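Lab notebook, bench 4. We co-purified these components, and the gel suggests they stay together. Before we commit to crystallization screens, I want a quick structural picture of the whole thing.
Request: model the full complex, all chains together.
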Amino acid sequence: MGIQFQPVPAYQQILSLEVWQLFRDQFPVVQEHPPLGAQFETFGLPSTPPVFPINFISGASHDRFWFLSELGNNLLQFQPDRLLHNWRKVEIEGQEYPRFENIVKQFRTEMQTLEDYFGRLGAARLVITQCELSYLNQISLPDWEPFSPQEWFSFVAPDEPRIDEFSCTARRILRDEQGRPYGRLYRESVTGADRRGTKVLTLNLTARGRPARDTIDGTLDFLANTRHMIANEFIRSTTPAAHRRWRRVR
Amino acid sequence: MSSIANSAFSSGDAAPVPRPRRLPEPTRLLVGDDWAAWREPVMQKLEDLVQAQSDASAPPVRLEVAHFTLQMLKSICPPDTAAPQIDAGPAGDAQVEWQTPTTKIRLHVVAPNCVSAWRQTPSLANGEEANLTNDFLIVFRWVREMLDGGMPGFTTTATAIVPAETLPAETLSILDKLTYSVDQSVVDHEYLEKARAAKDQAAFVVRRDRLTGNPRVMMSDDGVLTLQWRNGTNGAALIFSGDGTVSFAVKNAQQMYSDSSLDDAPLDASLPEEFRAALKALVA
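Here is the predicted assembly.
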């Protein structure tokens, strides 16, 4: 889950150490990555998403910092206009999915911590322009033989012949109670290989859009609402067999 | 996994092409695959505006405003649309305009998700306007009408439009006061630009939130504009410094303005609840 916000003019990359100090206790490992480009969900002319996003790079660019937990299963990503909290399954005995409620509670604290820090730099508050919630489900396929996507996805015709590779993306516009668009729900299912070269099937469900209020509370509302949309989309688009393999938990 | 999906662990491939670590290097815009006639001149202009020198007539357009402007135009402009005129505003904002012999369309991108749109056509002599966030369907229709030479065939949805003449009378009255706030005040010459920016930014907020009542409009000699509503011991004030921010203050029997002020909030931020409540009570 994550937010994109208006950069604070007084913040510069040289202060990134101070940002890490805010979270260092829980995220003692640091990595540097290229920054994510700005993303905005806008509506009007129907269009297909570009293969490569449009991005400005102006002057010196700020790194995207990965602040990792000791076990590597929790990640906080920070750049001047982004804060993202990710959880991933790693091979640790007894590790359990921490539940949405726990992650969002922690993310709330992290947003508030960052807002307080920016406040000390003179910003009134975080002005949040975009929120994002993603569920990434991945499963290893037994081998590199052709497979039947309809075993996993309910939107594939039952008589579809076995195929070698699979890629399918759908986008749905999210609307508020008055019918006004504010975001999109992306469903992306694709075959690929993991780091060990094992064939994997990935289902990625992402909701992204403008929160009704550009505040932390507005973000929490967005995350709570889209969480249910993503859960429903998962149930709708996958088969009972897939639910068992992905260990759907009610 | 394509770059459209998310920013999670697997998103290393979603990042923009990293800039080599050497200086100096010009601003570059990395573009996707879908071609449009307006794209190249718009990107070039936005690059120029983002890189504007501090001694230019207007400050540089903020990078997030440039990003949002480009994304907004993608939602508005069919591929054959002529590139609009784009200029920097007084506070890192951007102004986008098309003008034909019969139609004017102006978009003021104050910040991401904060756009005021206006157009004038022969049948809309007084113009019509809309305050928009990230839904630009109405402007897409305006542009289509412009491309079609004003031919009917596209109906505009009424919900998003705020025709100028239908703003509340008190809102129009405040806007009138603001119009003359600079000319009728004694402002030091060096602060004139700042005063004009403060006036424009105040008008934006008044229009956006359709503020009513009968506030005093005060311009200081250093270009700071204050709107003050009063009723007995109660009061509410909006203070614009012309730098793209607004400060809020509320006064009542328990607190002075200085006790409750929220300073330098971004112009596009929504009005704080405490201020809204105080103002509602004052103009009731």
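Chain A has four helices and ten strands. Worth comparing against the SEC data before the next meeting. Chain A touches chain B through 64 residues (CB under 8 Å).
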